Amino acid sequence: MSDVTAVAPHGFTVNLSILFGELPLLERPAAAAAAGFTAAELWWPFGAEHDPSRAELDALRKAFTDAGVRLTGLNLLDDLGRGARGTVSVPSERDRFRANVPVATELAASLGATALNALYGNRVEGVDPAEQDALALEHLVLAARAAHGIGAVLLIEALNRAESPDYPLVSAAAAVEVVDRVNAATGLGNARFLCDLYHLARNGEDLAAVIATRADRIGHVQIADTPGRNEPGTGDLDFEDLFARLTAAGYSGPIGLEYRPSTGVSADSFGWLPRELRAAR
Question: Which residues make Cβ contacts (< 8 Å) with residue 135, sequence separation at least 6?
């Protein structure tokens, strides 16, 4: 990347579930602030706890407010720590997902988040995919309405098949199809495509074409370089070009940093991004 300053008018948000992961969760907002960031996002931060205690929720809120960092996005119950890829379409998770929606929505609203991310969930052996898709639509409609209630969008994400072979949304087209289905069902128009350039690149998609043809559906963008999922400049992607294309296509939202630091030390992984560009806008 030769000159990110010329082509990235978006501002940035740092994903504290993957960056600063070498620190305890409650220390990460302050570490992000020390690195110059004013906004962050999270995967569901309580593991398998779909309804954490008030004390746990308050402690997380305090960590963000004390650091002066706004939470911009939050995953609904995802169970990533157990190898799952979301709970939206998984019949055995129906009760936990439905109970999690108001908890996650309240937490997101209290910290200023304007996006909830609902990972679709893996295919389950022995369960009809059509049954899973019907359940997913039911749950995504519920989540979209909850998001609308706090002025947020609901994000639907494509992952890459190499790392998530049982996840059915492994293309931009598949994710956007679900986005359109949810919007048709709710009439709210707040379901949006989470355009994660790392996952799309790992799937072999033409990123320029995705940006050009899906820009009107994009609700958030996340990045990591390929193939190692490390910071920009460590792999194959031309982020200067990609940022310019996003801007030209009309995307003005933040860019979410969702990569693993190549050295294992998060604070050392931001050299590609001038400090004055790290704050949210």
Answer: 88, 89, 90, 91, 94
Backbone angle region of 146, left / alpha / beta, with phi > 0 → left and psi within -120 to 50 → alpha? alpha
Catalytic residues, which ones?
Answer: 157, 258
**Which neighbouring-strand residues pair with 182?**
none
**Amino acid present at 182:** V
For 69-114, the pLDDT digits (tens) are: 999 999 999 988 888 999 999 999 999 999 999 999 999 999 999 9
**Token pair for 249:** 């296509």
Tell me the sheet residues that pair with 195. Answer: 221
pTM above 0.85, yes or no: yes
What pairing do the DSSP bridges indicate for beta strands 12-15 and 39-42?
parallel
Q: What is the DSSP string of the chain?
A: ---GGGT--S-EEEETTTTTTTS-GGGHHHHHHHTT--EEEES-TTTT-SS--HHHHHHHHHHHHHHT-EEEEEE-S--GGGT--BSTT-GGGHHHHHHHHHHHHHHHHHTT--EEE--B----TTS-HHHHHHHHHHHHHHHHHHHHHTT-EEEEE---TTT-TT-S--SHHHHHHHHHHHHHHHS---EEEEEEHHHHHHTT--HHHHHHHHGGGEEEEEE--TTT--STTSSS--HHHHHHHHHHTT--S-EEE----TTS-GGGS-TTS-GGG-S--
